[in-house]
Amino acid sequence: MSRAEKYLPFVLALFVPALSYINSPVDMTGHKRVYILASYVTSSMFLLGIWFYNRWLLNKDYLLKRWIGLNASLIVANAMLIAAIGLIHSFRAVDPNLPSWLVMFRISLATVIFNVTLRVFRAQKMHAQLKMHNLSLQADNLKFQIETLKQQINPHFLFNSLNTLLDLVEEDSKAASGYIRNFSNLYRSVLQSSKLDFIQLRDELQFLDDYWRLLKIRFNDSIDLSIVIDEDKLDSLIPPLSLQLLVENAVKHNEATVEKPLAIGIKLEEDHLIVSNKVNIKSYPEHSEKVGLRNLQQRFTALLRPINYGVENNMYVVRLPLKNG
Asked: Among residues 73, 115, 133, 206, which one has the fewest Cβ atoms lying within 10 Å of its Cβ?
């Protein structure tokens, strides 16, 4: 119940009866003072009674309401109440200076006003509940989307790593053996971190360093990685495996030779992490389902805000927003 709904009936009960005496002279001498005070208190009590009676009629389930519906039951129930108050007034209990028809008119007017006000409060409450329900559904849907995206990370990483292993087996079986040992340890980290929404940037960079060692087994001096990040920014948060995925994409789609090594740079600009590499598309590009970058965009959009990426001055640049740690 809102504060307005809680206190409004008492404010009305205190001030509305006083309106009867504003434009008319009041004799406050002798027994008239007690008589007027009793009339004022009685009117206030009747107003409070009408308010809570109509609130009960609106919110509770009762037989008449089930038989003829809400609106009809309100009319019948309030007509009975107004008739009862008219009967009580015949004993001069409400306001002895007013005729019965005027008392009943005022009570009827108060009933209509109270009903409208209560319906407004009821509509606001239902709107707030509906809004909360929608927010809850949106949160559940977002959580489901994030969990679905997380589940895509493991097979995506595994698939690309096995493709790398297949190429390595054909080129250098000894190197492939070392790759398998390092990969098993790295994949354990993948399984653990992919359960989280965010990890610290220092942990993400440590994982990238482990992954980079795998790449160096295959590419040796054909690839180069430069990282420039201040120490005080390492507590920032980032969705896990973001950097690994971008480095993986750069290596997957661009030529990398000893003569023209693929240089990948990672640096910090304000609250964004900038990952860039020179565009040198392979002559025979590998097939790509584009799952990785799409997954990354969806995860960042759901958890933080969208990423920006594109070609700038022959450099492929991705801007990842960071969350304060």
From this structure: 133
| Per-residue model confidence as pLDDT tens digits over 82-113 | 887 777 766 655 455 666 677 777 778 888 88
Residue 257 vs residue 61, higher pLDDT: 257
CA-based end-to-end distance of the chain: 37
Share of the chain above pLDDT 70, in %: 78
Model pTM?
0.56
At a CB cut-off of 8 Å and minimum separation 6, what does 239 contact? 197, 198, 199, 296, 299, 300, 303, 304
Q: Are 81 and 73 in contact (CB under 8 A)?
A: no
Single out the residue of 239, 237, 183 nearest to residue 211, CA to CA: 183
Q: Which helix (H) or strand (E) holds 248?
A: helix 242-253
Model confidence at 142, in pLDDT bands (50, 70, 90)?
Answer: low
Burial of 50 (0-12, 13-18, 19+ CB in 10 A): buried
Which phi and psi (to 5°) does residue 242 adopt?
A: -70, -50
Query: Half-sphere exposure of 214 toward its Cβ, with a 13 Å CA cutoff?
Result: 24
H or E stretch at 152: helix 100-171
Element (H, E) at 310: strand 308-312
Structure token digits, residue 33: 């003072």
Per-residue model confidence (pLDDT) at position 98: 63
Helix or strand (DSSP H, E) at 223:
strand 223-228
SS3 199: strand
Nearby residues of 286 by Cβ (< 8 Å), 6 or more positions away: 163, 252, 253
Question: How many C-beta neighbours within 10 Å does residue 255 have?
Answer: 16
Q: Which tokens is 219 given?
A: 């590419």
Distance of alpha carbon 204 from alpha carbon 217, whole angstroms: 20
Tell me the three state secondary structure of residue 95: coil
Residue 242 is encoded by which pair of tokens? 């973001």
Q: pLDDT value at position 227?
A: 94
